[in-house]
Every structure is written in structure tokens, then in C-alpha cells.
């Protein structure tokens, strides 16, 4: 995990993600990226030059009306001495049953984001950390280019004035495969995504395209990140 923490520290330092006294809510879906983020931030409390607190938040979407079992993550948080909250929601029911959305990912993301923001503030947090990694950033860049004809991407740091909450993405320099390798080596608990359309989205299609391009042009993802920085893309 040291290498992942190195990527995180680079992003945290470059974009000033953490300040003394921050209380950071970590959005934990249960997947490898968010679990790695929570684990690494918990470890970095011991040596990062800024003093901060960490709280883990999981939103159970309640797909098919069933509660998911997050016991392995509960146990990990106890070992890490991290407060951990599981919020049982009906987001899955709203998205797939009540609304029967043709584009469910957008509505699901909006509902989850709003609930995360509310919970973070209720817990006294001033920042919310999300597990988006380098490949997510590159895929988002290509999605905006291919679908909308724009040069855009989510920002490493975003201030939400309505909530007085700052979103940070400390994994934004970390390659997905290296996160997966680190999680496997550390034997961190991962809760399988049971979303009905997992791996059937536009993002999954673009990810496949980018992987093909990466095979043809090695280092492409790092070049895209560098281009966004050199081109002064908003927030980068």
C-alpha cells in the first residue's frame, strides 16, 4: 500500500486537499477503490504533516430490496480505529422500480451524492473523499470528448458552496490496476457490487476503448493526465 499512499500524497500535496483540523468523510461503496482510499487515509493520519480525522460512510442502495452485508468493512474499520456508518437507503428501488430510468446511472449518482453530502455534514465533516482514480479521470475525459464534444473532467478538488463541503479525490494519480494489486496483497475486504447494470454502462464502453488505445499507445493515460495539467483544464 505504500506506493498507493505515494500517489495519494502527490495528489494531496499538489492540490492542497487536506489542511490541519479537517474531518474527512470517505464515501465507501465497498469496492476496491473506496476501500483502499479509506485504508490509506487511516494509515496516513500517523505521518501526514497535516492533522485530520477520518469517517467512513457507506450507502446501501438496497438493490432488489435486500440489505448488503458490510461486516468485513466494519471489522476493518475497528482495526483501523475509524468510525464507520452504514446508511440503509431505498435508492435502488427509486431508480429501478419507481422511476424505471432509461439512464439509471445518472439518477443513482445524483441520489447517492446528495445523501453522502447530507450525512457528511451531519457527522461534522468539512470534506468528502471519493475513490476516483487515474483511469476514472481519463475515462471521464474521453466520455466528455466523445459524447459531448467538450474538453472536460471532474476536478481533483471541488468546493460545494451550498453545502459548505469540499470534495477531494486523493486517488486521482493512482492507476486502477495498481490499486487492485495493492488491495489483493493487503487482503483488504471488498463487497461485490450487485447493481443490475454493473459493467453494462457507457463508462464501461469507454473504458474498453481506452484500454485498446493504451495497448496501441503505451503510457496514454499518464499523457492524458499530463495534458490536462499542462493545458490548465479547470481544476487540474
Task: Tell me about this structure.
The chain is an alpha/beta fold and 236 residues long. The chain has helices at 2-15, 32-44, 71-80, 91-98, 104-122, 134-148, 176-186, 202-216, 220-230, and strands at residues 22-27, 52-60, 83-88, 127-129, 157-160, 165-168. It is 49% helix and 14% strand. Strand 1 (22-27), helix 2 and strand 2 form a beta-alpha-beta unit. The radius of gyration is 17 Å and the shape is globular.
Topology:
Layout: H1 2-15, E1 22-27, H2 32-44, E2 52-60, H3 71-80, E3 83-88, H4 91-98, H5 104-122, E4 127-129, H6 134-148, E5 157-160, E6 165-168, H7 176-186, H8 202-216, H9 220-230
Parallel strand pairs: 1-2, 1-4, 2-3, 4-6
Antiparallel strand pairs: 5-6
Helix pairs in contact: 2-3, 2-7, 4-5, 6-8, 6-9
CATH class wording: Alpha Beta
Count of helical regions: 9
Helix content: 40-55%
Pairing-aware structural class of the strands and helices? alpha/beta
Q: Provide the CATH architecture.
A: 3-Layer(aba) Sandwich
- CATH fold-level name: Rossmann fold
CATH superfamily: HUPs
- Estimate what percentage of residues fall within beta strands: 5-15%
> Please, what is the average pLDDT?
92
| Rg, alpha carbons | 17 Å
The string of secondary-structure elements, in order, is HEHEHEHHEHEEHHH
Q: Which sequence of strands runs across the widest sheet?
A: 3-2-1-4-6-5
Q: Indicate the overall shape.
A: globular
Low-confidence stretches: none
Amino acid at each position: 500500500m505504500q506506493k498507493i499512499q505515494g500517489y495519494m500524497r502527490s495528489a494531496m500535496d499538489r492540490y492542497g486537499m487536506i489542511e490541519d483540523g479537517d474531518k474527512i468523510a470517505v464515501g465507501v461503496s465497498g469496492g476496491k477503490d473506496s476501500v483502499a482510499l479509506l485504508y490509506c487515509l487511516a494509515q496516513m493520519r500517523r505521518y501526514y504533516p497535516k492533522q485530520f480525522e477520518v469517517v467512513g460512510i457507506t450507502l446501501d442502495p438496497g438493490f432488489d430490496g435486500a440489505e448488503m452485508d458490510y461486516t468485513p468493512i466494519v471489522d476493518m474499520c475497528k482495526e483501523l480505529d475509524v468510525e464507520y456508518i452504514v446508511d440503509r437507503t431505498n435508492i435502488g428501488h427509486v431508480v429501478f422500480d419507481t422511476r424505471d430510468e432509461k439512464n439509471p446511472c445518472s439518477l443513482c449518482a445524483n441520489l447517492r451524492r446528495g445523501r453522502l453530502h447530507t450525512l457528511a455534514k451531519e457527522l461534522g465533516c468539512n470534506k468528502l473523499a471519493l475513490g476516483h482514480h487515474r483511469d476514472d479521470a481519463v475515462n471521464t475525459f474521453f466520455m466528455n470528448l466523445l459524447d459531448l464534444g467538450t474538453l472536460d473532467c471532474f476536478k481533483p478538488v471541488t468546493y460545494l458552496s451550498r453545502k459548505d463541503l469540499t470534495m477531494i479525490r486523493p486517488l486521482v494519480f493512482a492507476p486502477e490496476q495498481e490499486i487492485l494489486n495493492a488491495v489483493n496483497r493487503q487482503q483488504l475486504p471488498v463487497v461485490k457490487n450487485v447493481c443490475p447494470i454493473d459493467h453494462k454502462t457507457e463508462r464501461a464502453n469507454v473504458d474498453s476503448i481506452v484500454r485498446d488505445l493504451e495497448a496501441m499507445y503505451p503510457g496514454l493515460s499518464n499523457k492524458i493526465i499530463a495534458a490536462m495539467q499542462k493545458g490548465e483544464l479547470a481544476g487540474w
